[in-house]
DNA sequence: GACGCATACTCGTATAGACGAGTGGGCAAG
DNA sequence: CTTGCCCACTCGTCTATACGAGTATGCGTC
């Protein structure tokens, strides 16, 4: 095992860069150069204190920086580790095409199994609710909506939390109000009910998660979320569903194809 | 001015929740309830120390939490402030449609002025380079590429940093290799040169910024970036351009329209 | 009025020490 | 061999203190 000095070097006492930033720089360089690989344990706080000759709080500041950048994660009682890059799920823009809608399983399940992962759906909840102002505006101001909430997991890891909202007059007493709406999901049911889908609008934002989102998605610090709001329109131009999705950003790549016309 | 106690309450000494988390919770609640509005100054560290009866490091831990969540920003010598939500730029999926390409100005400029903002383009750099492995793969493995780098600002604030890569055999000694490629931008020039554009692929990721990105985009802590990689394909199916864009996530909403077919 | 300076306030950085709590290995008792 | 405990090591939380550096304000001088 190479000495810490050869891996991390020493500080520059003449630099006006804060000591904890210099330490973070050294660790970042070492990670970038592959001296520490994904999942590797970084030197313990005590080792770094001794190596750089600084106090523990200074070392902790440096490690906190790396965690904010999403480069490292700490585990109580074990150490600080280079954050592993999880396998990402690619969402293609044709994922809601009609031809994908005839299977018996949900789009998430089919796609995940094809990618060799073990999919799960979790904490399913179907409720009638008063819509928030934003959701109401997107759906044409219905007084009440049907909300379908669920969490998706890949290989046991939660990756996405989604809520679908439908105007209650449209969804009440239909298979859509059942926990399992049947093959092809609610989009297939909507089309059977005469709402031929025309197009989807998707709005994408990225931000840091709220504490609640950190809990439900088990997010490490330094991992943002992608917030996607999809509105489905039928052939008459009516908004028939809004789906509000929060995804762990380190688990997703979104992919869209745009015509150049 | 209401007393701190009425705004923040007190700690629960029986709770096993860490004190600095409780303080962060109180501040977060107060912000959510509108007791502190966007841009408002939070109580100073000293005031919080006195109010909660804890040490300064504990207060700083609490404030650091809020900053990681993107809720607050600190300004040296001034205080800690509720982070203002900047105006966002909406990127529509038809922003590269041919009909938007006949103006004398760039798409960014036209759109920003329409939204009432003052657009700037910055640190323009045009160079011939050896492509990275990823860029090369996307462009069909050219030996060299033309790279066009630039930074975009709105009302003086940097919001986006983009690099376009084109195969050198396609772009050398054309207006595309000029700092200003002319009206309609490089897409108009590509079409004039016989590369009729057919479609674009866009890949979207979100992550925390690297230190370099923090500098060029002047990012506050707790602000992720959206990383967009767009590939332009001509009618023959050849990839003629890859544009790698890093955006301040708090300044953007991406919007796509998908057919339901 | 314009300028410069002192000052008081802000957050930033760093030290030293203490105790708590999760993890894992070794060792002794059964 | 298995069980259970202890211990060493890890990070988490918290206190107390000190000095540095950026900002704003007021005041006195020019």
From TrEMBL, chains A, B:
InterPro entries: Bact_HTH_transcr_reg, Chorismate_lyase_/UTRA_dom_sf, Tscrpt_reg_HTH_GntR, UTRA, WH-like_DNA-bd_sf, WH_DNA-bd_sf. The keyword DNA-binding applies. It holds the Pfam family GntR. The keyword Lyase does not apply. GO terms for molecular function: DNA binding; DNA-binding transcription factor activity. One of its GO terms (biological process) is negative regulation of DNA-templated transcription. It comes from the Bacteria. Residues 17-85 form the HTH gntR-type domain. Gene3D superfamilies: Chorismate lyase-like (3.40.1410.10), Winged helix-like DNA-binding domain superfamily/Winged helix DNA-binding domain (1.10.10.10). Residues 101-123 are annotated as: Disordered. Keywords: DNA-binding, Transcription, Transcription regulation. This is Regulatory protein KorSA. The lineage of its organism: Bacteria, Bacillati, Actinomycetota, Actinomycetes, Kitasatosporales.
């Amino acid at each position: 095992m190479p000495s810490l000095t050869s891996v991390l070097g020493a500080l520059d006492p003449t630099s006006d860069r804060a000591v904890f930033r210099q330490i973070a720089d050294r660790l970042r360089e070492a990670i970038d150069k592959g001296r520490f690989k994904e999942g590797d344990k970084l030197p313990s706080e005590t080792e770094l204190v001794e190596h750089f000759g600084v106090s523990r709080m200074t070392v902790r500041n440096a490690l906190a920086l790396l965690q904010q950048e999403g480069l490292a994660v700490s585990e109580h009682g074990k150490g600080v580790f280079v954050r592993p890059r999880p396998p990402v799920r690619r969402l293609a823009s044709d994922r809601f095409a009609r031809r994908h809608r005839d299977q018996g399983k949900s789009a998430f399940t089919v796609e995940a199994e094809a990618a060799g992962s073990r999919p799960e759906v979790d904490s399913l909840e179907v409720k009638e609710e008063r819509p928030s102002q934003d959701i109401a505006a997107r759906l044409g101001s219905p007084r009440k909506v049907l909300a379908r909430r669920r969490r998706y997991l890949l290989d046991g890891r939660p990756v996405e939390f989604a809520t679908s909202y439908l105007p209650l007059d449209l969804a009440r007493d239909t298979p859509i109000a059942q926990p399992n709406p049947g093959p092809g999901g609610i989009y297939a049911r909507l089309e059977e009910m005469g709402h031929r889908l025309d197009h989807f609008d998707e709005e994408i934002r990225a931000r840091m998660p709220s504490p609640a989102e950190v809990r439900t998605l088990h997010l490490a610090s330094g991992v943002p979320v992608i917030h996607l709001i999809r509105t489905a329109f039928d052939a008459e131009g009516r908004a028939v569903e809004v789906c509000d999705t929060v995804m762990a950003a380190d688990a997703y790549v979104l992919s869209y194809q745009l015509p150049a016309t």
